[in-house]
Amino acid sequence: MRRAESVGSLMAASLARTFPPELLLAAQGVRVAFFDVDGVMTDGGILYSDEGETLKRFHTLDGLGLKLLQRAGITPVVITGRDSKPLRKRLEALGVADVHYGTEDKRPAAERTLASLGLDWSQAAAMGDDWPDLPVMRRCAIAVAPPDAHPEVRQCARYVTQAAAGQGAAREFCDLLLVASGRYVQLLESYG
After folding, report:
1. pLDDT of res. 49
2. Cα-based angle 129, 27, 143 (whole degrees, multiple of 5)
3. d(Cα 37, Cα 115) in Å, to the nearest integer?
4. What would you report as the CA-atom Rg of the chain, rounded to the nearest whole angstrom?
């Protein structure tokens, strides 16, 4: 058991070094994480079938990240300007219950969520890629953007992921929050 504990400690120390210490400190009290979808959980492209149905591609790394946040006691919340059957199906499969579809003005949706959870902005983190995400990102304790986000959004972000949108960027955000919460190693070890 001693060896497993030391391996876990080394893994945590190794991963924590990839995130700046001040970033981890800022994220320590986060209890809710706001996510945009297009350009964060997807690559931002929108595909239409011949019948006009919207098609989306999601990365499995991001999906597990959302599940891990829930296990760590951090509530993932999706606030998106669009709505589609594939999106609803994916979020339902991941157990993400707090979702605001077709929401262009994202700040009021975030404020309602914070109020319902009994939290405030200092306990929130957000990941976005374009201007509609800025009102939420600017108020959170920590704001994150994928590298292909709009320049104004990258400038607002305290951290820009290495992974691209739809290619694990949301998982990187989740990992940051899990490391900051102190739950990363415990969750990793649960996978044997």
Report:
1. 83
2. 15
3. 22
4. 16
Length of the chain, in residues:
192
- The CB density around residue 83, as the number of other CB atoms within 10 Å, is 14
The structure tokens listed for 192 are 């044997």
Q: Are 109 and 166 in contact (CB under 8 A)?
A: no
12-64 pLDDT tens trace? 445 544 799 999 999 999 999 999 999 999 999 888 888 887 888 899 999 99
Q: What angle do CA 81, 85, 90 make, to 5 degrees?
A: 90
Structure tokens given for 171: 């998982």
Q: How far apart are CA 147 and CA 153, in angstroms?
A: 10
Q: CA 143, CA 26: separation in Å to the nearest integer?
A: 10
What ranges do the domains of the chain cover? 2-189
CATH code: domain 2-189 is 3.40.50.1000
**Token pair for residue 70?**
């829930």
Name the token pair of 43: 């690559």
**Beta strands across the sheet bearing 124-127:** 98-100, 75-79, 32-35, 124-127, 142-145, 159-160
CB atoms within 10 A of CB 132: 18
